[in-house]
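Posting this for the archive.
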Amino acid sequence: MAGRVKTFLELVKECDTLPYPDEAEYGRLTSGYYYFRLKKVWRAGDDDVSSSYATIGYILPSVAASMPWTDKFRVDHDTRTISIPWPTATTGDDHSSYETDAIAEQLQIARESDRIPILRKWRGELYRILGLEDGRDVRIARAGSAVFGVHTIGVHVLGFRRDDDDNGLRLWIPRRSPMKQTFPGMLDNTVGGGLTADEDALGCLVREAHEEASLPEAWVREHARPVSTISYFSIRDERAGGPEEVGLLQPATQVLYDLELPADMVPQPLDGEVAEFLLWTPEETLKALREGQFKLNSAVAWIDFFIRHGYINTRNEPDYLELVARIHRRIWF
């Protein structure tokens, strides 16, 4: 059901919910967060030197208190920091996967104790942790990314076709399955998914386009066009997973692709995540956006699409400059 009409800037702020440091609510919200830190460079020594660590996530105080921490983690409640120091007790071992293994063990223990509800939604997918100076490959289970508040990457496709009668755009808009765990029944990007640790953006796009929309893999690989990114820092609400996940932190960047489909190529649901595909005009889509019918980050991706294609511009959008800046938030880890 359509809600009240929203501005495009309100839609972006509904997704990018962590206030900026110069906004009044920032201090109140962040004052209790724990800083999840990993060493900037994975090497022995300087484990007690704060500057040798990089913050790569925010953890809620309720999560910090509920988590049955193993001895691989150093938890300091005075400084509100949670880190993985160098394993001095086993310096003869290969430490290349030590952090990945420590995080995996920690999440498995938490799953078994059922202390962190979001871990019941385990998918078996791994994400790479970003923000490390030496670029090493540290991984975390997808379900654990919001637990540790780490920066994740996704790929979203905005699909469209051009009608021969008026050369007008028609946009392929999926409606999410009512059985989805997150944002059930809401409108979405044509195709989208999280970037797993062992794939690149195009590989992710091709996989999701097949699984969600039955689009031919070779054709998509040839015609998908990288066009933009959006970034935001979300504080999860009930739509993202229910009341037990409210407040979890989710900084994210989405890599955007445009995909122009020929008239005889019609997306079809395949894996059960999409209920139907709708073919809408830009005007119909803009109306649904402002009525709040879209999944939060998908609304931001379509807003970026409409900016790039000239439907939202300085002549018709009073918040244009702030809008463009806000959909490209700098994620500092």
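The radius of gyration is 21 Å. The longest helix spans residues 98-113.
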